[in-house]
Amino acid sequence: MSYNFNISPEVISMVKQIALTLILGYAIIQVLVILFKRVFFKKVSPQSKMLITKGIIYTGVVIIVFTIINILELKNVFHTMLGAAGVLGIILGIASQTSIGNIVSGLFLISEKPFEIGDLIRVGEKQGVVYAIDLLSIKLRTLDNLLIRIPNQTIISTEVVNITKFPIRRMDITIGVAYKEDLKKVTEVLRSIAKKNPLCLDEPEPLVLSNTFNTSSIDFIFGVWFEKTNYLQVRNSIFQQITERFKEEGIEIPFPHISLYSGEATKPFPVTNEDRQ
Amino acid sequence: MWSKISIEQENTYYWKLGLKEIYLQKRNQEWLFSLKDLPELAKDIICGEPTSPLNDAEWLTFIGDSGNTLQPLPAFPDRPIVVKPKTALKVLPNKDVLLFIEIPLYIQFYSETGKNENLIFECCSQELSSTWFGELDDGTLAYSLPLEISTAFEKSKHASHTIICPVRLTNDSITTLDVQRFLLRGEYLTIYRHEKDLWSNEVKIKFKGESEFSDVQYVNQAPSFVKKPVQIATPRSSKSTNVFSKSFHFFKSLTE
After folding, report:
1. Which residues touch B114 (CB under 8 Å, ≥6 apart)?
2. Distances (CA, A) of A20 to A7, A9, A10, A57, A73
3. How high is the pLDDT of residue A35?
4. Cis preceding-peptide flag for A46 (omega within 30 of 0)
5. Domains of chain A, CATH where assigned
6. Contact B78/A at CB under 8 A
7. B110: Cβ contacts below 8 Å, ≥ 6 apart
8. Which of A21, A80, A138, A164 is the most buried (most CB within 10 A)?
9. Shortest Cα distance from A190 to chain B (angstroms)?
10. pLDDT (tens digit, 9 = 90+) per residue, B56-80?
């Protein structure tokens, strides 16, 4: 059994042109992206890099598609398709409602710029570094190196906290001290801890606030300002220094405890032995 | 102190300045540095062989240089300095005052010559605490320098590990200027040597009123009152000598 394929020279020429368009188009897009990255590598922020790279790729793909339509001489088909676009649009719209919502939300996110690539953000209970802002979703790399994909629509309708937007941050630590302690002394010790820590900033001044009378302690809020990149070092060193200095100064950090009295605070709780036979 | 040194392999070299002790060794193509903190300020800068053996040293290693010539040079800190007068400093309207600010130096070690690309290592002579100058969302990370500011240079009180920066403050406004703090950008300053002292070029700050930008000018030559100055270090970064910036922050006008 033999098959005889008769492919006309026009078809072969068309296939060749399409292949050439695809290869050349792909190569040109890649070259443009590489050139852009090399020339503007240091000058442009990661966010702008991503936006411009995607702009180049999407524009390139659209040009390739239109060139192929032109080669295939599908202008008439294309015009018919445009005529049917209204109907098609409704069908596509219903079918891809969520995706279109995500794309539109993505455009709002890019224009509003609540965060950029590399920012540490918190969305609901999830926290991570913005890894990519794509057409349909943003991707976060969590601090334990997991990837979280959050649809753009969710981001638009949820409260987003950008932790690293500004160059400096304040770390608030709640510290409980025993009721017997001299609050003035505690305030002074906390201030001197902040002053002696080289990672804490002199200005803005550290916050020392006597906050609440708790069940077993008087709670202070101790807030130190630091450069946003030093979070871990500051947290570790401040905790260590607080425990060390409190031990040196004899300041007690109490644990929760309950005192039981049998009516008079000054007398011990009465205990009697009962002989049971 | 600030001249080239020919380094012999395996020998230990020693510097003592401010609150730091620096040890150096050369092993084949490696430069090794070790730092120690001093309990109190050293009176003079000492350069030579270590007086006591260095035990349990933690060495910082810089590999890839086969040269044996070392050029130590002084430098300004790697961040701007926020100068905070310890005692109230008030400048009357339409008057100016010359202040002598002593800034703890950084020591830089270059291989062969003091070109940027030859820098091996640098360290401060005294740790300065960090501070923020400006608004919370837009400002500059700087070092804080609380100082007793003097309007006359007293050689006897001058700390050996500091660079003296003459700052001319001009109050061009109609109110008394209460100086709480001001920013000095050491990166634009050249360093000159006169005998054992280190001087920088003069900085002129003109205050024109709270609502206007202050005019900060870095004069491009050694102070006129320093005789026969020798330039020993260039600025960390080159920038125009006339920088308009809001150098003052939180001024209080005493009179309205």
Report:
1. B71, B73, B108, B233, B234
2. 19, 16, 15, 18, 16
3. 83
4. no
5. 9-83 (no CATH), 114-162 (2.30.30.60), 168-249 (3.30.70.100)
6. no
7. B70, B71, B72, B73, B118, B119, B120
8. A138
9. 16
10. 778 899 988 778 888 899 999 999 9
CB neighbours of B158 closer than 8 A, spacing ≥ 6? B102, B164, B197
Q: How far apart are CA A14 and CA A9, in angstroms?
A: 9
Chain B residues with CB under 8 Å of A199 CB are 130
Distances from the Cα of B232 to the Cαs of A84, A176, B39, B48, B191, in angstroms? Answer: 79, 54, 29, 20, 6
Say how many residues make up chain B. 256
pLDDT, one tens digit per residue, over A189-217 is 999 999 989 889 998 999 999 989 988 88
Nearest CA in chain B to A205: B131
Pick from A168, A202, A204: CB nearest B129 = A202
Residue that the structure tokens 């005052």 belong to: B97
CB contact under 8 A, A227 and B141: yes
Q: Among A21-25, A101-105, A199-203, where is mean pLDDT lowest?
A: A101-105
Nearest residue of A to residue B144, measured between CA atoms:
A202
What pLDDT does residue A265 have? 62
Interface predicted TM-score of the whole assembly (ipTM), two decimals = 0.72
